[in-house]
Specification:
Elements (H helix, E strand, L loop, with lengths): L3 H7 L2 H17 L2 E5 L1 H8 L6 E6 L2 H12 L2 E5 L4 E6 L2 E7 L1 E4 L8 E4 L2 H6 L9 E3 L8 E2 L4 H6 L2 E2 L6 H4 L2 H13 L2 E2 L1 H9 L9 H12 L4 H11 L1 H5 L7 H13 L5 H9 L5 H10 L4 H20 L6 H8 L4 H10 L3 H12 L10 H6 L6 H15 L6 H11 L2
Parallel strand pairs: 2-5, 10-11
Antiparallel strand pairs: 1-2, 1-8, 3-4, 4-5, 6-7, 8-9
The structure holds adenosine-5'-triphosphate.
Adenosine-5'-triphosphate binds next to helix 8.
Length: 411
């Protein structure tokens, strides 16, 4: 099968030109270049995918340097790993020297050796991701499909390439379900049986790698589908016994989509994902996923605020009370509670803080108070806080009113 016309049709002109240059330069250097992975799968499905991955039989770093020089484009290389990244306009293109992998023990990082294209395809997760397209001038566009990926695409199947695939690398359990749900495919029967059998192997995977795969799920259009399925399979519970992918999540994720900026959505999903956990369970998850400090704080804030949400379910609460209740929390934790809360009053008060109250400032500051004759010290801090509360509650509006109030409080 030749996919040259699909490449021409689906890739933007800019990328097409770059791919052609790579093909030409590889040929001149006596190397062989192939498009691999997700882009091949998506070209066959007719889906747009502009994240190009190339495998080079030869020396990817040398080839990338040559192309970057000719095209005057930015390049990052990792000679030790035989990889290079070309940054081209809004696109990036990853190039890697073909390699094979062996696993010393389950979950370990693989030992990498130089290899052929077939070795490189064999180390991949599923047959639908283990296809390549030749970029050599002699057979430009030819599909390389040693593991029947195209047939599996046609039959809507997710299939691993060998029996030890999930035990070698149990992140593939999460990946299999992500693709299954994204594409509306099914697990091929033996793959399904091994996936279920190997769920305990998730214990061998580091927190960073599990977190990365969860983040990939959260970047899907419908992460709730994969989470539900992973919950049914018991894979979520293997990561943390209290995690669930139940119906509540589906409803709240939908709401999150309509309320959040796209860039924030994965973190917001994570907050909702842990919303039913106890603080102790949340701490276990933070440790298991080795969450960065900032994100761990957002999750802690989310649950802490949840425990105080009843205080906001009060339509006569003062603005200053809302402010001092919420000011220490991360805004994302507030957004998560807006999505999660069933109380329209609590949601209103949270929105009010985020859109207005957090920006309220007094006209007077410490220096200006000193100039009014208020001596420096703890009283001055106290007066500033009274002014701020008065401003929040609408009791003072102008600078003159603030000055009047400050002078009335002068010790
Ligand atoms: P998409 O999510 O659209 O598939 P992608 O194909 O670029 O994007 P990535 O997660 O970036 O997916 O992985 C790139 C390629 O690397 C995949 O197509 C897959 O073949 C391979 N890969 C990634 N992770 C693994 C893994 N754990 N085991 C084997 N192969 C993997």
């Amino acid at each position: 099968m030749n996919l040259a016309s699909q490449i021409e049709r689906y890739l933007p002109q800019q990328l097409l030109g770059l791919v052609r240059d790579i093909s030409k330069e590889a040929n001149q250097l006596g190397q062989k270049a192939y498009l691999v992975g997700g882009v091949v799968r998506d070209l066959l499905l007719g889906y747009p995918n502009f994240d190009l991955d190339l495998v080079i039989e030869g020396d990817a770093v040398k080839l990338a340097q040559r192309v970057a020089e000719i095209r005057q484009i930015k390049l990052i290389t990792h000679p030790r790993f035989g990889t290079a990244k070309l940054n081209y306009g809004n696109f990036t293109l990853d190039m890697a020297t073909a390699r094979g992998e062996t696993y010393a023990k389950p979950g370990a990082l693989p030992m990498v050796t130089p290899g052929t294209l077939n070795d490189d395809l064999f180390r991949r997760d599923f047959s639908i991701n283990a296809m390549a397209i030749s970029l050599m001038p002699s057979n430009y566009g030819e599909l390389v499909d040693p593991y029947q990926g195209r047939s599996d695409l046609e039959h809507h199947l997710i299939r691993i390439l060998h029996l030890k695939s999930f035990s070698d690398d149990a992140t593939r359990i999460l990946r299999a379900i992500r693709y299954e749900q994204r594409l509306g495919f099914e697990l091929e029967p033996q793959t399904s049986q091994l996936l279920k059998q190997d769920i305990p192997m998730l214990d061998t995977i580091s927190g960073d790698r599990i977190r990365h795969e969860l983040e990939l799920i959260f970047r899907e259009r419908h992460p709730e589908y994969a989470l539900k399925r992973l919950g049914e399979l018991g894979a979520l519970q293997r990561i943390n016994s209290s995690l669930k992918g139940n119906g509540w999540i589906a409803v709240k994720f939908d709401k999150a989509k309509s309320l959040s900026k796209p860039g924030q959505l994965p973190s917001l999903y994570l907050c909702l994902f842990i919303y039913s956990l106890q603080e102790r369970e949340n701490e276990q998850l933070i440790r298991r996923l080795n969450l960065p400090t900032k994100l761990a704080r957002v999750l802690r804030d989310t649950l802490h605020l949840k425990s105080r949400l009843h205080l906001l379910d009060n339509s006569s609460i003062k603005h200053s009370e809302i402010y001092y209740l919420l000011r220490e929390y991360d805004p994302l934790a507030m957004r998560a509670n807006i999505v999660a809360s069933e109380s329209s009053t609590a949601r209103f008060n949270l929105e009010l803080f985020l859109s207005k109250l957090r920006y309220v400032k007094t006209s007077l500051n410490g220096d200006k108070l000193k100039r009014l004759g208020i001596p420096p010290g703890p009283e001055l801090g106290g007066i500033l806080q009274i002014l701020h509360k008065a401003k929040l509650d609408g009791k003072v509006k102008t600078r003159a009113e603030e000055e009047k109030l400050a002078l009335s409080l002068k010790p």
